[in-house]
Write a structure and sequence with these properties.
Chain A has 372 residues and is mostly helical. Chain A contains 16 helices and five strands. Chain A starts with 12 loop residues before the first strand and ends in a 15-residue tail after the last strand. Helices cover 55% and strands 5% of the residues of chain B. In chain B, helix 7 crosses helix 8, helix 9 packs antiparallel against helix 10 and helix 10 packs across helix 16. Classes of the chains: A mainly alpha (372), B mainly alpha (372). At the A-B interface, strand 1, strand 4, helix 4, helix 5 and helix 9 of A face strand 1, strand 4, helix 4, helix 5 and helix 9 of B.
Chain lengths: 372, 372
């Protein structure tokens, strides 16, 4: 029995999952039963990663155990260090992440995806990015600090000094908010790879490749670029109406699933107001105009500011360079990817859909000498 | 919302003109409408790659140009060399391939997939496979030769000596047969990655990651390992009966799509008689007994020898060590993967399916850490 072709598999159920649910109609994102708004500013990234992997929040002792395990796996293998140095300093950080995660995870024999392997991979992402960032700037690498949490240590390794509690908290909230999001394209790529009984690192490397695309994780830097082009709030309407005539896409708008305001965008917007007022003033005006124009063009479509729009302002306030916005998305999402891979492996069936042939009817090939 | 079909079985996820698996009639059709059995006698791997990319078999002039272009793209760049050297020599060859392809394609900025990149990527696979084998054997890496065809150059880089033409032909035919196969899991992974607007290297890395799984590309190795355990034609019946009693799966049997004998397996079976006469005897008896046992167990199921079973025999005869089988599969399929990615660009839409929530009822309130 074959069903009709649905472009992009929109609305087609590809998996059953207990990890997260995007309730687009009601604007809810749910992790293992908890609504994101209840987790975002209360939980550490470590607690949420535990939740995604194990299905429940950790006890104090379990959280301590996980934190130690993460801290103990922050250093790169010798191979990963060599590979990191082999890549030119102007390489796209997503390509660095894809390549060095691949080296860090090489094995002699195929291993099944497990939570310990998920922890090790999650621990390595900030180190890879921070080491590369320091190298780009011609600065000495900073060794990880075991007593710092995941967000604090990432910032410490990037900057060589501890960040303020407010900044650490903001990054932590960002990491919590982005950690999972139903069957998005990179998570789905990870599950397709896992479905062949491949290893966890292979799934993660594939997911990084998918996240890189501008239609998925590659957009937050573009939000900043567009805001810079607009310049100031009073120029927003003029610029955007002109841009629309040239068919320029508004960056940070549109989502396939949410029919109301994305709950993550709401939290990030509030964080921008507190931490990045300059961005906030411009961005809220741009948002207002963008939604107005989009509504005029397509009154039937719902409001659609997406998570990337205000992510950009938060990551900017944290002091991350824009080339590291999408890689930092990966620092968060690796928790969700690995949880999905483990879930897929536990109840697996190879993901092998059908295609519809649109080529010519069978015919005979002509030998080379007679092809003219 | 649609019903959940595990593994997306029967769900059409793409329209394609690159290839069609007509499972009911046991036909594999490559782009342009050519049946696989008609192509094998008239076309080399390079011609088939051209066909998959362009939709037409090349003229002599076009083929000459393609061969030159591939020969010129056989060298690893410094990033890829450095990354290769970063891995220990006994690393799983698929992990080496995944990593070195990622490093070779690491770029400054995101670019749209192009045909030139597809050609360069296809050209580099034998170099990586050859170097992997040399390193595994403790030998020096052999530089590619630009006067040899794709299959011959692969054997040259593995062995450092001019290969026998008959072995070249066996490898070449294997490469032709495996170059594409509808929306298999690795090709689908490549298309999912492409759907986000990501680059060609990311797509191919994701596809390698998926091919690695024993339920997909790893099956050829498993088939050969089973034949090794059986050891001789005389032992086949006893070994298979015992294995069946222990509920072990027979490697090299079963396919989701074919309802008659896989046309590729048929061609490889015939080749195996010359390529590996001794192993052929064991394999032929194994097939006979296995099909009989499977038929008795499930009389309703169709005949099910798959391509991996006979590919393992032909590759053995061609002198390919079994540790490299999956990388040979990748060396062939990369032309299909890239053809699918290029095809998908004409109507790119993010592949973002839905999932069904099987977790706890949303809305439970998280308990504070101290109270857990």
């Amino acid at each position: 029995m074959t069903t009709a072709y649905v472009p992009g598999l929109e609305g087609i159920v590809a998996s059953q999952t207990a990890i997260s649910m995007v309730d687009g109609a009601n604007g809810r994102l749910v992790y293992q039963g908890y609504v994101i708004a209840d987790l975002a500013e209360e939980m550490s990234f470590e607690e949420v990663a535990f939740l995604l992997w194990k299905g429940r929040l950790p006890s104090g002792a379990e959280l301590e155990g996980l934190s130690l395990e993460l801290a103990g796996h922050r250093t790169l293998t010798q191979g990963a260090n060599i590979a990191l140095d082999a890549l030119p300093v102007d390489t796209d950080p997503m390509d660095v992440l894809r390549s060095v995660v691949s080296v860090q995870g090489v094995e002699h024999k195929l291993a099944k995806p497990t939570i310990p392997l998920a922890i090790h991979a999650t621990a390595s992402f900030p180190t890879i990015l921070a080491m590369f960032y320091r190298r780009q700037l011609g600065l000495e690498p900073i060794q990880p600090r075991r007593e710092l949490g995941h967000a604090a240590n990432y910032l410490y390794m990037l900057n060589g000094k501890e960040s303020s509690p407010e900044v650490v908290r903001a990054l932590n909230t960002y990491l919590v908010l982005l950690a999972d999001h139903g069957m998005n394209a990179s998570t789905f790529a990870a599950r397709v790879i896992a479905s062949t009984e491949s290893d966890l690192i292979s799934s993660l490397v594939g997911a990084i490749g998918a996240l890189k695309g501008p239609a998925h994780g590659g957009a937050p830097a573009a939000v900043i670029e567009q805001l810079e082009l607009i310049g100031t709030a009073d120029k927003a309407e003029q610029w955007m109406r002109d841009a629309r005539k040239r068919k320029v896409k508004f960056m940070g708008f549109g989502h396939r699933i949410y029919r109301v305001y994305d709950p993550r965008a709401k939290i990030l917007k509030e964080m921008c107001r507190r931490m990045n007022p300059k961005f906030y003033d411009l961005a809220t005006r741009v948002e207002e105009v963008a939604l107005q124009i989009l509504h005029e063009e397509h009154p039937e479509r719902p409001q659609s500011t997406n998570v990337e729009f205000y992510s950009a302002g938060v990551l900017q306030a944290i002091g991350l360079p824009r080339e590291f916005f999408t890689p930092t998305f990966a620092v968060s999402r690796v928790a969700g990817w690995s949880a999905h891979v483990i879930e897929q492996a536990a109840n697996n069936r190879i993901i092998r859909p059908q295609s519809e042939y649109i080529g010519p009817e069978p015919r005979k090939p002509v030998p080379l000498a007679q092809r003219g | 919302m649609a019903e959940f079909s595990p593994g997306l079985e029967g769900v059409v996820a793409a329209e394609t003109a690159v290839s069609e698996v007509d499972g009911a009639n046991g036909r594999l059709i490559y782009r342009g409408g050519y049946l696989i059995e008609d192509l094998v006698p008239v076309a080399t791997y390079e011609e088939v790659a051209h066909l998959l990319w362009h939709g037409e078999l090349p003229t002599e002039k076009e083929l000459d140009a393609l061969r030159r272009q591939m020969a010129a793209a056989r060298k690893l760049n410094p990033s890829a060399r450095g990354t290769l050297a970063a891995m220990d020599s006994q690393t799983d060859p698929m992990d080496v391939l995944r990593t070195v392809v990622s490093a070779q394609g690491a770029a400054k900025a995101l670019t749209k997939p192009t045909l030139e990149e597809a050609i360069a990527l296809t050209a580099i696979f034998p170099t990586i496979v050859g170097a992997t084998w040399r390193r595994r054997q403790g030998g020096d890496v052999v530089e590619p030769r630009d006067d040899l065809g794709h299959a011959a150059n692969l054997l040259w880089m593995m062995e450092g000596k001019e290969p026998d033409p008959e072995r070249v032909r066996w490898v070449d035919t294997y490469l032709v047969l495996l170059a594409d196969h509808g929306l298999n899991a690795s090709t689908f992974a490549a298309r999912v990655v492409a759907s986000t607007g990501s680059d060609l290297t990311s797509c191919v890395v994701g596809a390698i990651a998926a091919l690695k799984g024993p339920a997909h590309g790893g099956a050829t190795f498993a088939a050969r390992s089973m034949l090794d355990k059986i050891g001789s034609a005389d032992n086949a019946e006893k070994w298979l009966t015992d294995a069946h009693t222990r509920h072990e799966r027979f490697s090299g049997f079963g396919h989701r799509v074919y309802r008659t004998y896989d046309p590729r397996a048929k061609i490889l079976r015939e080749m195996a008689k010359n390529a590996a006469p001794e192993l052929y005897k064991t394999a032929a008896r194994t097939e006979e007994v296995a099909l009989q046992i499977l038929h008795e167990a499930h009389p309703e199921r169709p005949n099910a020898t798959n391509v991996d079973f006979w590919a393992s025999v032909v590759l053995t005869g061609a002198g390919i060590p079994k540790e490299l089988f999956t990388t040979l599969f990748a060396t062939s399929r990369v032309s299909g993967w890239t053809a699918h990615v290029l095809e998908s660009l004409s109507d790119l839409r993010i592949i973002r399916p839905a999932s069904r929530w099987i977790g706890p009822q949303p809305g439970k309130k998280p308990v504070q850490l101290a109270k857990r």
